[in-house]
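Quick look at the format.
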Amino acid sequence: MNKIILSILVILFFNNCSFNENSKIWKNKDKNLANQKNIKKIFNENEKLVSELNPQLKLDLSNIETGNKAINNQNNIGSQTYKGSLIKSANYKFSTIDDINGLNLKPVFLNDGLIFFNNKGSIIKYNNDQKIVWEKNYYSKSEKKLKPKLYFANNNENLIIIDNISKYYSVNINTGELNWSKANAYPFNSEIKLYKEKFFAVDYKNTLRCYNISNGSECWNLPTQDSFTLSNAQHSVIIINNLVIFSNSIGEITSVDIETGLIIWQVSTQSVGIVNEAFKFKTSKLVSDGNSIFFSNNRNEFYSIDVNTGTTNWTNEINSNLTPVIIDKLIFTVSNDGYLFIVEKDKGNIVRINDLLINHDIKKRKYIRPIGFAIGEKNLFLTFNNGKVIVVNLEQANILYIEKVSGDYLSEPFIFNEKLYIIKNGSIIVYS
């Protein structure tokens, strides 16, 4: 009898609850399904497929203007004066650096030599004969074990250094003697930009900091939204007129009054969920022609935004975190899967796309990633993570030659004083 009563109760329960679409059980299920439908993937597992566009289109670069800018405050260096054919002419040696892969390391280029660092944080100044002029280290024994990575800027008298273990300091560029040294609350992860008597950098907490060059005291700081994870991508800083503009790890671009540190405008290029995925997100350096700011990321987004208002001029689908180069009315960039894009600067229309890895085996090319590029005269010099350099004629997109420089990681190439510089682990190679 008890079993019969129990069976009846069970049947009544399911009839009145489970199979009634208005019951709480089914309401919760629908709610969960709705939530799942609203979930957006931060990163698509499948990259957008790219094909060539107008691959035979010839560009007329006969009137191209070249310069000798190793760096400037707008990151707009254009085409550099370099007609070389990758003939090795010098080699600056330093002790190998741990975890060099993926780091945005750059020497300080001088007319009489260059400055770099080694795996213990020693700053080394070389002359043009690759001889050491001076070598200085301002780290304690325990700090040396952390193997700090250094980032530089200079005003011809003083060398400003920030690092990834929270120190920032200044040395005399001629003697290497310490001017001052201070510590930040968090490590730095950005370019350094100098303006008059101040310099600017961004730390891992997405805070822009302004310091006095003379003594390292802080002028002001501007925090932006932090991410839950650390990003390996270096933040970018540019200076235009009275504005300092920077990127952070979650895709925000912020414009700040250079004197007061007050926000002028801020643009968020990503959804809120990016704070959980910042370690995967990579943005190129910001580049400006004075009117617009150009940048791209590894989420198939290339942006042009107005300098004064932050409004979007145009966007296009290009998957790249390499620094674009502006030449006259065109923008040159290379996607993360090895395609050369040429884009109209004012409207964002793609003029030409060329596959620079077209002769590579399909199975192998998925492991090949471009690191960076520089443009010398009418040629593009592109480095890859497999230790190779490809030289491409930009007018016709012909691959002129391929040079094997290293067995693995290479830095982006740099052009200065009509020479090409490439960093591999343990040395800086110079080509004439």
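Next, a different chain entirely:
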Amino acid sequence: VRTSGKEKCSSGQPGEMVTNLKASIRGLSAKVNEQNQRKCDVKDKLQQLRERISAEGVDVSVQELIPLLKSLKELEKQESEVRSYCNAKRSALEGAVFDLEERVAKGYDGEIPEEDLDVLLVESLDHLTSAKKELAAKLREIVSLKRQIDDVPCQSELLQYERRFSELNVCIQEKLQQTRKLYGTYNALLEIKDLMLKETSLLNSIGSQFQDVIGTSAGRVKLIDSMEGVMKGIQQKLGKVQLGLQEEQKLCDTSKEKYTAAAAEQRKCFTVLRAFQDECTKSDKLRSQISAVNTSDSKEVIE
């Protein structure tokens, strides 16, 4: 509270100032306690979440929660620093209040300098405003962290995602096989088309120019060269087809060998299983005979 000119405050005004400072300190303490309570609530929820994760065995959720927990630890560290800062400021304010009370008790002739009161009031308001801002920032970070934790999918959702991905993978594999077959058929039809076009063109050329070409030696040579070129092209095509056929035959032979080996292994397993079953039957018979002998011996001993 200011006075006109260079007047000074009365003894009632310092008391009001002390009351305001104490109220500010109580407000800061209440905010710190509220923040501690929220921190404890967040820790309890995290502990429940850890127990749930350990019970359900959600590895992916744990991997996603690790950075969130690190962020929470950083927030706890920052919160500890803010609390230390607030405690230090509160101690300073309490010291200022104590000084004011002493000065009021001593009186200084019933008056306190206005400049000191203004400085203390401005400092207290600044500290209170900064503490409120820091508290609001921490609360926003805690709320954001809780939302991120809530966004982590549970085990049932992960199982649904995995099942859906498996179904999509099967569909994609089927479509891929169908596409490969269609492309193979398309390429084969293109080659057949090229061969038929060449054959048709050759037959048309021969039919239209045969009489003219066959009558001269140069025409006959040209016709023979043309036929040889066609034969070379056909042989090249035939070579490519034979190479493809050989590769397919190799794959077929490899598959047959694998099938033969698997069938032999299966027969071997059946043989071993049958022998094992026979031995188990013999063992059961021997056990029954031994139990019968033991029973008869015990009866003889009793008699």
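The domain at 12-152 is CATH 1.20.1270.250 (Substrate Binding Domain Of Dnak; Chain:A; Domain 2).

See the schema section for token definitions.
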